Amino acid sequence: MYQIKESNRELVTQHYLGTTYEKWPMYYLKISQPTNKAKKIIWMDCGIHAIEWISPAFCHWFVKEILQNYRTDPKISSLLQNLDLYILPVFNIDGYIYSWTTARLWRKSRSSHMNGTCFGTDLNRNFNSSWGGVGTSHNCSSSTFCGPEAESEPETKAVARLIESRKSDILCFLTIHSFGQLLLSPYGYTKEPASNHQELVDVAQKAATVLKGKHGTNFTVGPASSVLYQNSGSSRDWAHMIGIPFSYTLELRDRGAHAFFLPADQIQPTCEETTMAVITIIEYVNQKYFPNGAKLTSGNLCLNLLLSVLFVGALS
Amino acid sequence: MELEPSHYPAQRAAGVARACISYRRGGPNRVLTLSNVRRARLQVRGRERGPRGQAVNCTAEVLYHLGSQHSAPEVHFTVEGELGKNPDDADNKFYSRIKSLKEPLVAQNIPDSFGIVPPEMEPIRHLAFSACDYIIWQNSTENTWYNLAQIQDVRQVKRNDDYLEFDYTVLLHDFVSQEIIPWQMQVLWHPQHGVKVTQNSRQPK
Q: Which keywords does UniProt give here (chain A) (predicted)?
């Protein structure tokens, strides 16, 4: 992350979020075209579940794509006029390290429970969205242990704190997982549709169609509680519940043939197709909130104010 | 009641049907993956050693037994056309190779952490898929969706008769609970007689 920040100083800054249970510092990258324009935010996180190795790989790829192409690709440069991208490449650092060094199939964090006899909370059951309800376990030895309480984990707290503080500017919350080939909208904790359910599904369908155009991969679109399973305490549900209008979970390749052990030759194609899907979603958000290339500029505001003052002065 | 094919109830039932068909028809050089679920129809792709196999249409009926005692779901299926010659040359080659090994085959972590499977281990892996499919079929409910995640350990057991025998410890993944479940299974295979799981038991985590 340091290297990316250093070699793209004009666009990328690194920001501290907090620390993990094992005291690793958590940073997100902010990709922002420097202007004096007020911008809105797209959030994307990868690696909340340690076992899902393709997920951090995708965040890395996506950052590389943006930085390599933002000067030459009109799509990307137009998005960056209005939107800042906040990217957390590895949410569950402790668990990810553990999956490389000790247990490949580890999913949860590495927090200690029950006097050091049991480890790890499922960070995607730990958010304050009907926490502890359907589709979670209150048993520490379970893979979907939701923690002793909502936001009990330092990783969850670190992310939730930032998102909460910037929620009025965040238009889109994307969380990247595997496997399943799914584009999931809220909610998981209930079958009740989200307030903007149809729009969410339509945009996701658009993204899935674009994704399929790249390498022929089929993604299923729909609310998590219908397509996948019911689960509480997810980050995607929580983000939507606090008012972020576009909130999706992406489950990347494959559908179970290799499952978590996606072969190396599928990494690049997976990243390519997923990049196209993510860009499609961001483009829609850009068009919706900044229609016809309208820009939210404080520069314009200042000019208007100045003119009206002069007029008033002249009349009196 | 009509089920939405892309939603999880239909997908899980399709997984059970696939597992049952695969156990009956699979082997070291044949893997059956689920290609698509349509309205009441199941499309199963038989993949034989090459990267693309033909898609074969199957119709399957899956009956879950509800009640306090678990029993395996019933699967009734018909396959349109053939799922490939049995045994074929690849099966015979694999059979001869293993039969002629001086030391019994032993291996761990297939695939490895990076998804790599040595080519000579592919038939061992496919055999595990088929054998696991028996376990998956037998243990599935409406609230499970099992897949073989990894072979933790495999040891050949030398036999005096024509069969090949392997003692596997596999890791099954249940998509619904997200649990990784170790499972031991004793597997027999013969080119003419197919795959048989003679013994299996769930292991502690």
A: Carboxypeptidase, Cell membrane, Glycoprotein, GPI-anchor, Hydrolase, Lipoprotein, Membrane, Metal-binding, Metalloprotease, Protease, Signal, Zinc
How near does any CA of chain B get to the CA of A250, in Å?
15
List, in order of start, the domains of chain B with CATH numbers: 8-80 (3.10.450.10), 88-202 (3.10.450.10)
Question: pTM for the whole thing?
Answer: 0.89
Exactly one of A52, A65, A251, A283 is catalytic; which is it?
A: A251
Which residues does chain A have within 8 Å of residue B113's beta carbon, measured at their own beta carbons? 100, 104, 261
Task: Please enumerate in sequence order all residues whose Cβ is within 8 A of that of A46, keeping only pairs 6 or more positions apart, or say none.
Answer: A55, A56, A58, A59, A87, A88, A89, A90, A91, A176
Which of A220, A222, A259 lies closest to B173 in CB terms?
Answer: A259
Q: DSSP class of residue B64?
A: P
CA nearest A261 in B: which residue?
B115
Of chain B residues 17-46, which have a CB less than 8 A from chain A? 31, 33-34
Per-residue pLDDT tens for A25-77? 999 999 999 888 899 999 999 999 999 999 999 999 999 999 999 999 999 99
Contact B199, B185 (CB under 8 A): yes
Give me the domains of chain A, ranges plus CATH numbers: 1-290 (3.40.630.10)
Region A232-236: what's the mean pLDDT? 98
Is A283 in the active site? Answer: no
ipTM, two decimals, is 0.86
Residue B52, pLDDT score: 53
B173 touches chain A (CB under 8 A): yes
Determine whether the interchain pair B177/A143 forms a contact, defined as Cβ–Cβ distance below 8 Å: yes
